[in-house]
Amino acid sequence: MTTTRTNLGPLTTPFTYPASCTLNVIQCSYCLVAWQAQTCSNNPNNAAGVQDNAACWPPRATTGSNSISTGVALNGWGIYSPGLSCPVGYNTACSATGTTVGGFQFQFAISAQETAVGCCPPNYTCKWGGSGDAQTCFSVATSGSFSAVQCSSGTSNAFSYYTVPSTVTVTTTETSTTSASASGAVSASASTITSTAVNIYEFNTVTLYAPMFQLVHQASDVSSSSGSSGSSPAQTSSAGTGLSTGSASSSQLSTGAVAGIAVAAVVVGLSLLGAFVYFFIKQRRAKRQIAYAPPPNLAGNMGMQQPPMGAYSTQDGSYFGSSTTPMSMKSGTMQPSPVYEAPVDSPRHELA
C-alpha cells in the first residue's frame, strides 16, 4: 500500500548534494547499519539524537514542506513534481511509468500519465519494503573503508574510518552496589561490585543508506521545459525517461552532423584510393615502355653498334658480310673497306 504523497515542489534545475551529507552516521563501532544525510540533534525518537538533515534535501517550495521532520532516519518526505533533474552527485537508479507493470514500486504512487524516477548516489540501489516502510537508497559495503561519526546526546563524536571486513573488541564495565544490612550485633556495610565483559565482534558487511529523491513528471512538463528559453537542462538524459542525472555532460553532435561527417569521410577515402590506383597504373606503364624500348639507330649514334646480319668482325672493327666486299664504319656510316691480299710468294710457316 502506497503512502499519501506530499508534493515538495518543482525540481527542474540541478541541486548539488552537499559533500557533508555523504558522511555516514553509525550508531556504534560494531553496528552494521549507517545513514547519510543525518545530523546529531535532540531527536526524542532516537536514543542517540540522530535526525534527518534538511539541508541535504533540495529546497521545498510547497507551504509547510520546509518544516518537515521525521522521527527516524530517511522516513520519506514526499515527491518533487515536476521533477526533471536529479541532484548533482546522484544518478537515476529506478523508474516507473504510469500503471505499467515491471517498474519500481514507489512509496508515493503515480498516476497513469506520470513518470517517476528514483535518484540515488552512484552504486546505490532503490529500496522500499512496502507498507509501513520508507523508500530509500542502500548499498552494501563488503570491502574498503568509509568515514562515519557517532552521535551521543545530540552531539557528534568518534569520527573515524571504518574498514570492512573488520574485527572489533568491545569492553563493557558494569557496577552494582549492595545495600547495608544489620543482623544482631553484626552489621554489613554497603558494597560495590564491578564486572567487566569483553566481547569480540566480527563483521564482513555494513549496509549504508542514503535518501532517495522521487521525481515525478508528465510528458508536457518535459516539452515545456525544453521549449522555454534558458531552461533546457544541460545534463545527460537517463534511461530514456527524459530526466537528467545532474552530472555535467559534454556537448554532442546532432544526428545530421554525424551523418555529414561520415559521408565526407567516405568521399575522401574513395578519392585517395582512386589517386593511388591512377599513379600505380601510370608507373607500371612507364616501366613497360622502358623494358621494351627499340634498339638504337645506327645512323648518327656513337654508341655501341650491333653487327649486320650475317657479318663477321675483324680485329680493326670492320665487318665482313656474306658477300666478298667487306664493310667498315666511319663517322657513323657503313663504308666499303679495302681488301688486303697476302702476296702469293710469301713463305709459309708451319707450326712446330
Automatic annotation (TrEMBL):
The chain crosses the membrane at residues 257-281. Keywords: Membrane, Transmembrane, Transmembrane helix. Residues 224-246, 322-352 are annotated as: Disordered. Residues 322-336 have a biased composition (Polar residues). This is Mid2 domain-containing protein. It comes from Sporothrix bragantina.
